[in-house]
Design a protein that fits this description.
The chain is an alpha/beta fold and 563 residues long. 56% of the residues lie in helices and 18% in strands. Among the domains are: 1-130 and 464-563, P-loop containing nucleotide triphosphate hydrolases (Rossmann fold); 203-336, no CATH class. It contains 18 helices and 15 strands. A six-stranded antiparallel sheet has the order 2-1-4-5-6-7, with helices on one face. The radius of gyration is 42 Å and the shape is elongated.
Length: 563
């Protein structure tokens, strides 16, 4: 449920924190006091379009924040949170910041999210019924779910059985898919798989060979540089130049000088041994370089052969995998599929028979599910029409329209849409085509009051649901909203004294001039203040003794009903 609504620099609000509670919360106030501002703030946090006009004059940005308490067992909410990388918690903080420059910043529990996330998750937390709001019951996709939940345990059992049969049918179809359903298709697939397998096998790819070929190609492309370095190194070691003796000769001379003095200082023996090892190692290096130099040769033919072979590697990796290992794995998969297809005739026949039998079981279960749905729909129609009559819509009609899908899904063959007509003789139309805001709100209240136990959206908001109704009808509206508040948190903007009297919590919205600025304020009313406000709602005279007595009677009447 919605527990807290914070606003800053939003319309006429400079800063406001509004705490909501369980049960029925009503908001009243003089016309123009700012009740629509609060509904606008809630719409904003639920992902509706923003406007720079919503930012308080003199401010560069406005911010709205809402805190919701929700059940960790709500799978739909958890799945949506996981889509956006947010861990499920029992408290969700929605925030939205709008600026005059058009920038929107949306967050859930501190994580930046797209505007669509507020809309998707908000639609699972709040159902707002007003002139410019979107109601969940206008979403045809939800009608079937609501009907199924209204059908109770008997329908749920049949639906679960249908889902089991449908999933089994899908598994059988998945098994048939890779082995084909007719001989010609299977032979074409075998031919393709054999071609792919033979092509890979003939290439005899090897990761070590590919590495060696690439190294050899690099060497061939650098033969001239390698020859120059080898010649220079061999020359320095053995040939020297007109200015310098070869390195080996110079080291021999040094060795001879040190050897001649070994008797003078014993440390020279160590130096002499090191020089002997160095001269030996250098001589061996010279021979190695000589051999390496003689073996260096550039062969255009060899280079062409290497390039051709590497092209084979490249071509097959483009077709069958990014590495030799992946290409080899693809070849093995081809072999397995060929074996499966070549030995699949009997298996296909068996799977086809099983699929036909399973299809029949699915259709039988779908027929049972459809029959229960139609039975539940008939009961639902009667209850909602009765509820509409109680709300003063005596000529209203409500119907559940069924259509059958060409192909079933996990919900079955049925498509369901709720239809409504407010006037005798007028055709039934989809709920989305209802024009009157007051009419829409009463239809929603009627439907919600019947589906209250099944409806999973925790918070319902009604904006001026009493518009255009009075007398006994508004009393019925108040009673239904009070009953609805047993299963949901209900927030209602109203001008009705009866609806206000039925509330568990009452808020008064008013304007206050501070300095040279007008601000919208909200006050939580205690028992005494409620009497004053309900008296005002009755006839505009909040201090009139008779009005106040009537207000006390209304509060007492609805308090006793709640008990």
């Amino acid at each position: 449920m919605l527990t807290l609504l914070n606003m800053r620099d939003f319309a006429l609000i400079d800063e406001l924190a509004l705490e909501f509670h369980e049960g029925l919360n009503v908001l009243t106030g003089e016309t123009g006091a700012g009740k629509s501002i609060l509904i606008g703030a809630i719409n904003l946090i639920l992902g509706e379009r923003s406007s720079s006009d919503q930012i308080r004059t003199g401010a560069e940005q406005a911010q709205v924040e809402a805190i919701f308490h929700c059940s960790l067992e709500n799978q739909q909410i958890n799945e949506q949170l996981e889509r956006y990388g947010i861990s499920p918690l029992d408290e969700l903080v929605f925030s939205r910041q709008i600026s005059r420059r058009g920038r929107n910043i949306c967050r859930i529990n501190g994580y930046a999210v797209p505007l669509a996330a507020l809309k998707e998750l908000g639609g699972l937390l709040v159902d707002l019924h007003g002139q410019h709001s979107q109601q969940s019951l206008l979403d045809n996709d939800k009608h079937l779910l609501l009907l199924d939940e209204f059908g109770g345990l008997a329908l749920a059992d049949v639906k679960n059985k249908y889902i089991e049969e449908f999933n089994c049918l899908q598994e059988l179809r998945q098994k048939l898919k890779p082995i084909g359903t007719n001989d010609a298709e299977r032979e074409r697939k075998i031919d393709l798989l054999r071609f792919q397998k033979d092509e890979i096998m003939a290439a005899a790819l090897n990761e070590e060979e590919e590495t060696n070929l690439r190294q050899r190609l690099t060497l061939l492309d650098n033969v001239q540089k390698l020859l120059e370095i080898a010649n220079r190194a061999y020359g320095e070691i053995y040939e020297g130049s007109h200015n310098f003796l070869p390195v080996v000769d110079r080291l021999n001379n040094i060795h001879a000088d040190i050897t001649s003095l070994r008797g003078i200082d014993p440390i020279l023996d160590t130096f002499s041994a090191i020089l002997e090892e160095s001269i030996t190692a250098l001589s061996e290096l010279g021979h190695e370089i000589y051999t390496y130099r003689d073996n260096l040769a550039y062969s255009p033919e060899e280079r062409d052969e290497i390039e051709d072979r590497l092209e084979t590697y490249s071509r097959l990796k483009k077709k069958y995998g990014s590495t030799v290992a992946e290409v080899t794995a693809f070849c093995e998969k081809c072999s397995q599929e060929i074996d499966l297809l070549e030995n699949s005739a009997a298996e296909i026949l068996s799977l086809k028979k099983e699929t036909v039998a399973q299809q029949k079981r699915v259709e039988e279960q779908a027929a049972k599910l459809g029959a229960l749905r139609k039975s539940a729909a008939s009961v639902l129609e009667g209850k909602i029409i009765k509820s509409l009559n109680e709300l003063g819509m005596h000529d209203a009609q409500f119907a559940v329209e069924f259509k059958q899908r060409e192909k079933p899904d996990r919900s079955g063959y049925d498509e369901v849409e709720f239809l409504f007509s407010s006037n005798r003789g007028e055709p039934l139309k989809p709920l989305a085509r209802i024009i009157s805001a007051g009419e829409m709100a009463r239809v929603m209240l009627a439907v919600k009051s019947i589906l209250a136990a099944q409806d999973r959206i925790p918070t319902l908001i009604f904006d001026e649901i009493d518009s255009g109704v009075g007398g006994i009808t508004v009393q019925k509206v108040a009673e239904k909203m009070a009953r609805l508040a047993f299963n949901h948190q209900v927030i209602c903007v109203t001008h009705s004294s009866q609806i206000a009297s039925a509330a568990n919590h009452h808020y008064y919205i008013f304007k206050e001039v501070s300095g040279d600025r007008t601000c919208t304020r909200v006050s939580y009313l205690d028992d005494h203040s409620r009497v004053t406000e309900i008296a005002r709602l009755l006839d505009g005279r909040s201090e009139d003794i008779i009005s106040r007595q009537h207000a006390v009677e209304l509060l007492t009447q609805y308090r006793s009903q709640r008990l």
